[in-house]
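User: structure tokens for this one?
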Amino acid sequence: MALSSKLYWSTYALWISALVGIARRINQEVTESYMDEIFHVPQAQAYCAGDWRYWNGAITTPPGLYLLPAILSNIQQHLPRYFSRFNLCSLDSLRFFNLSILALLPLLYTSLLLALRTSIASAQKQKFTTTTTKEREENRNSARWEGLTIALMPVLGWWGWLYYTDLGSVATVLLSMRLSLGKRWFLSSFVGAISLLFRQTNIVWVAFIAGVGIARELRTGNSSKKTKSQLYDPLLPDARLIDLVLTPYSLAYLSLHNISTIVPSLTAYLPVFLGFLAFIKLNGGIVLGDKSNHVATIHIPQIYYFIAFSAVFFSPHLLDPAKIKKTLSSLFGSKRRVATSLNALVVMCWTVRNFTIAHPFLLADNRHFAFYLWRRVLNIHPLARYLLTPVYLIASRLVYQAL
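Assistant:
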């Protein structure tokens, strides 16, 4: 086994040890449900006790988070007494379910990265497979390190120590994508449906996975001979504004002329979408429970927050002086670029003025980081939110250039 491989597994084991150590300390200090755990934990424990009619009206997501502990607890009751001494539905145990998912995420990321690289190489008509054992091992090691790095994402890691829906939601979406890359359509669709039990908004990701699968089938030459057209899907550096129309049109056109090619993937995912529409109809909307505080709204500045946060905190390599200089030149390097950038800033200021939303929960709950970002950065002065628009614009350009 190569040295880098041994180093990876040692680092992976050290990371898991750190996760467990932190979890033990948190469980020692935070012995009661924290934040939204006050809703999730009693709900899971009710299911564990066999009370399937109980439902807390403050919960807005489906019961996927609570089903696995309840199923395992039910199985435990039929095992020898030795196993009954473990309370699978205690606060510590419920948190451990999420910790287990977080610990396994690097393996899922690695598998997904390798499958993506194979798929991309196939789409580009390149030979992905390497000829030597050493090259194959180096490729696997590269994907392993990248997968472990992604798993270190702080925002996601936070939920590994609490009993929330986030990790189950992320893991099932990624697994559905991985299965789709292997053309295991029906299994991918099934796992995608399970992801909806954690977060109903995952229907967007299921649609994305289905769309990517269909596009990949059309691109890799499996289409019929009814049309010689190729899928129009330019790379981002070559894309134009009109391509936002041309690419979907090309996908729809080729799909209609190559029905037999996309039938396997289309029929696999169609029941999930039909079932979701039925759920929306019966539920009277996408939100379960507390509908009044969870209303779909247009919140354009949230995109600005996301891009700036991603550029500054998750991609610090983008802040290289040479890259910033290149970005400033691309935004303000000529009269035409200055005019374009100023117009963009005017539009951004207009969206900030008309679409900034401060949810009552944001204003009231000082246990969230967002509470302090809003109070001490975005809302520290009436003009503060507008003065940040140049930061959003530069961050957007940095991320665009990186992509």
